[in-house]
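Recap from last week: sequence in, structure out.
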Amino acid sequence: MGKKREKVKRLFADKPLKETKHYSKRYAATVLSVISVCLCVLSVLGFIFIKTRFSDTDAIKAWVDENYLIAAVVMTLLCAVQVVIALIPGELLEIASGYAFGGVMGAVICTVGILLGSVVAILLARRLGRRFVESLYPREKIDAIPILNDPKRRNAMTFLLFLIPGTPKDLFTYVIGMTEMSIPLYIVLTMFARLPSIVMSTLGGGALGSNKLMLAVVIFIVAAVVSACGYLIYLTIQNRHRKKTVKDK
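Predicted structure tokens:
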């Protein structure tokens, strides 16, 4: 029993960051541009395929029912790509997943895809270094995040920031890649923190898929209000952290 406990502790313990070659911003931006272009081309081809193959949303749902496994894999990969590239708002994919697969299964698919994409984002940040992350987000935004600058409260702060709807979670994921947090710990913390927001979106999409328009409208209004409140909370946390950082200097 003691050995198992030690293994679990080691699994979730911080992992010292390996020395990373700091690639130039130009190199990092080039890598990101190549990935983005390839994914955009694939997205356009996918859109053309959908446009020529399906006449309406009912036809799409019928295809999903007939090719459930393939459709689930595709949606999972789309959710993963969204985290890595962050071109498409995650909520849109979550609503689409709920529409196509139902509220519960849609949430499962989105959660798996988001976690997969998050692990890729963390590994990219650790492989290519801070300059790669700065080619995605301004340095000021990165430095203003409590996760990076307050290691003592990092785990609790990570859970809180991922729990609050409306916060820039894709940015947080890349920033976590610059910390010593273990990936298993990240998965556990963020999986439970993200669930309420994901379920809210997929339930709304599921209501649309079932033609329950009033229920969908109510869910989306509640989600919008909660997200706005959450974002205000995040701004408050960020401002307090910024004031504390300036005071300490």
